[in-house]
Write a structure and sequence with these properties.
Layout lengths: L4 H15 L9 E3 L8 E3 L1 H9 L3 H12 L5 E7 L3 E6 L1 H13 L13 E5 L14 H16 L3 E5 L7 H12 L3 H5 L6 H24 L1 H15 L5 H23 L13 H13 L4 E3 L2 E4 L13 E4 L7 H16 L3 E4 L6 H13 L8 E4 L5 E2 L16 H18 L8 H21 L7 E2 L2 H4 L7 H18 L9 H10 L9 H8 L1 H10 L4 H20 L8 H24 L9
Parallel strand pairs: 5-6, 5-10, 10-11, 12-13
Antiparallel strand pairs: 1-2, 2-4, 3-4, 7-8, 8-9
Helix pairs in contact: 1-3, 2-3, 4-19, 6-8, 6-9, 8-9, 8-10, 9-10, 11-12, 12-13, 14-15, 15-17, 17-22, 18-22, 19-21, 20-21, 21-22
The structure holds arginine.
The site of arginine (ARG) has 8 residues, from loops.
């Protein structure tokens, strides 16, 4: 199944336009803006009127005339100056849902099959604790990865940690200067407490050394020299770095595991070190990299640039490499190792210029192939209630782990308040609270257009009413409990897949009260397509929310378990189980897992 309902209807209406010697694409059908008046609409008569030099209403009349006898349409008429309104028959809609239910991807086309995509949505820096700034890239990036995987792409999520550069030299030289080398190298990396202590130490130490290096040129020299030694893999410089790296990765893994965010590759900037020299030599030979004021740069300015476009710096005057150098070499590496069709960067919008320079340099310098699409999926800032970038109460940077802990507390509080999860043991309560907390954080983020800023407001995010993650979970769990009752089982882990197959193996028919839920279900692949096409998960979040609402009305207005007519009851249960499946899949694409019960 590869055509969505609106695509199929567009074919039908397009054929009617063709039959009148008008372009078929004028027959594009979409979901009606006024669901109270019609299910679908086509506005093509407006444009057709210009082409044919007739009044839009006359064209619309012709088209409606052609479509009038169509067996799949229950109604075709004209609204206003020439909008064509359409309804489909219940049988047609039911048949569409049957196809969707029978498709292994619920009607989502496998447009990515045979293609690899690398996604870059990590970027935590070693020796520094992860903070709220890393939250959005993880949430949005992982969602894009899940969506692309569902659409058939082979996906590779790379954490691409910041582990290269002078800040590493500063820390390592400080350990050596204060005689701490043996103590640090003696740290047991199996021991969480020792790792935490080291990370704590680094957190305190780093700002101090950074300040000291600023003031004292000799200290700075030392740090720079240490950086070079690390890069040349000299002992104990390199060993110290390796240890710090491992300890940091431990913290990163813990944070990402708490968030339920997955990476396939745990690489960093340092991994491309050996590629840099040959890359720069090659770029110089091609005359793309040039000397400028003692630095080596790639000019990326174009004549039609409206804003300033500085060159991408490969080597600074002191010979050090820059952020752009490792990013460029990483493209070289990714292209040669994974042969990707696309590389997608999910990074703070404020780094936009860097990526513009990088992509221009990459394309101009032939470090990549022209058929590799490089895409910057920038995101807006997560602000505090004061409208400024989110901070702790004391005004500092909030650690990611602390933020997650706050959300966990809040989720637990809300579960208790709502008297949910009452008869569960402590372990299950914790599991539910964790899922609610993560759903609250992720859904609050992903319901916003990626490029917009939003205000972090845990009280609102963790509510069980409104457009929130917990509300979504609650609706999903409610469907599960309904199915449990329908199948007269007390088994908490019901076998949805078996029920699904059973219910859709029978005849499913629709009637009045089922229609709007059925229509909503049929829009899943369109919402998915919009989200995937623009790398914008909010289309799916919005869809999921609308679906949950449609279900809620359906549940309130239709007899399901209490329905006497077995055929109707059966059909309604089929809608319930399909709703569950679609909701579960939508939430899964947002990185949100549904608890067994709530
Ligand atoms: N480590 C960087 C930072 O903290 C983010 C890295 C983003 N990814 C990239 N390929 N540049 O700003």
């Amino acid at each position: 199944m590869t055509r969505s309902l609106v695509e199929k209807l567009s074919d039908v209406v397009g054929a009617a336009f063709s039959a009148r010697d008008l372009p078929a694409d004028l027959g594009a059908v979409r979901v009606s803006d006024r669901p109270d008046l019609a299910q679908f609409q086509c506005n093509g008569a407006m444009a057709a009127a210009k082409i044919a030099g007739k009044a839009p209403r006359d064209i619309a009349n012709d088209i409606v005339g052609t479509l009038a006898g169509h067996g799949d349409l229950s109604r075709v008429d004209i609204a206003g100056p020439g909008f064509i309104n359409l309804d489909v028959t219940d049988d047609y809609l039911a048949a569409h849902l049957r196809d969707m239910a029978g498709d292994s991807h619920l009607g989502v086309p496998q447009s990515g099959s045979g293609q690899t995509v690398v996604l870059d949505y990590g970027g935590p820096n070693i020796a520094k604790p992860m903070h709220v700034g890393h939250l959005r890239s993880a949430i949005i990036g992982d969602s894009l990865r899940l969506m692309m995987r569902y659409a058939g792409f082979k996906t590779l999520g790379d954490v691409h940690m910041g582990d290269w550069g002078t800040h590493m030299g500063m820390i390592v030289s400080e350990f050596i200067r204060t005689g701490a080398t043996d103590r640090i190298l003696g740290i047991d990396l199996e021991d969480e407490e020792q790792i935490d202590a080291l990370m704590g130490e680094l957190g305190v130490m780093y700002p101090q050394i950074a300040a000291a290096c600023k003031e004292d040129p000799a200290r700075k020299e030392e740090a720079l020299a240490a950086t070079v030694k690390i890069q040349n893999k000299e002992s104990p410089y390199f060993d110290l770095l390796q240890l710090i790296r491992k300890a940091s990765v431990n913290g990163m893994r813990r944070n990402y595991a708490l968030l339920g965010v997955h990476f396939d590759l745990w690489k960093g900037e340092a991994d491309v070190h050996d590629l840099i020299a040959p890359m720069v030599a090659d770029l110089k030979a091609k005359k793309l990299a040039v000397e400028s004021d003692g630095a080596t740069v790639i000019p990326v300015k174009r004549d039609d640039d409206k804003k300033e476009m500085p060159p991408l710096i490969l080597y600074k005057r002191d010979g050090g490499v820059m952020y752009g150098t490792t990013d460029l070499a990483t493209i070289v590496e990714r292209v040669s190792l994974y042969d990707p069709a696309r590389i997608i960067y999910v990074v703070d919008q404020r780094q936009h210029l860097h990526f513009e320079q990088l992509f221009r340099a990459a394309m101009a310098g032939a470090v990549t192939r022209p058929d590799v699409a490089l895409f910057f999926a920038g995101f807006g800032t997560m602000n505090g209630t004061d409208g400024k970038p989110f901070k702790t109460r004391a005004g500092g940077v909030m650690k990611l782990e602390d933020l997650i802990a706050m959300a966990l507390d809040k989720a637990r509080e809300r579960l208790d308040e709502a008297a949910l999860a009452q008869d569960m043991d402590e372990a299950e309560k914790n599991d539910v609270a964790h899922k609610v907390a993560i759903a609250a954080i992720k859904f609050a983020d992903l319901q916003n257009q990626r490029t917009s800023d939003y205000v972090f407001d845990l009280d609102r995010f963790a509510a069980f009413e409104g457009k929130t993650g917990p509300y979504m979970l609650y609706q999903a769990v409610r469907i599960k409990s309904l199915l449990r009752k329908a199948y007269v089982t007390n088994d908490i882990d019901i076998d949805i897949d078996t029920m699904f197959r059973d219910l859709w193996n029978n005849d499913v028919s629709l009637r009045e009260g089922d229609r709007s839920l059925a229509l909503q279900l049929a829009q899943f692949s369109d919402a998915f397509d919009a989200a995937l096409r623009h790398y914008m998960p909010h289309h799916l979040a919005e869809y999921g929310y609308q679906l949950a609402n449609s279900f809620s009305s359906f549940y309130a207005n239709c007899h399901i378990l209490s329905e006497d007519d077995p055929a109707i009851r059966q059909s309604r249960l089929a809608l319930c189980v399909l709703t569950y499946k679609v909701l579960e899949t939508t939430l899964a694409m947002l990185g949100i897992a549904i608890p067994r019960r709530m």
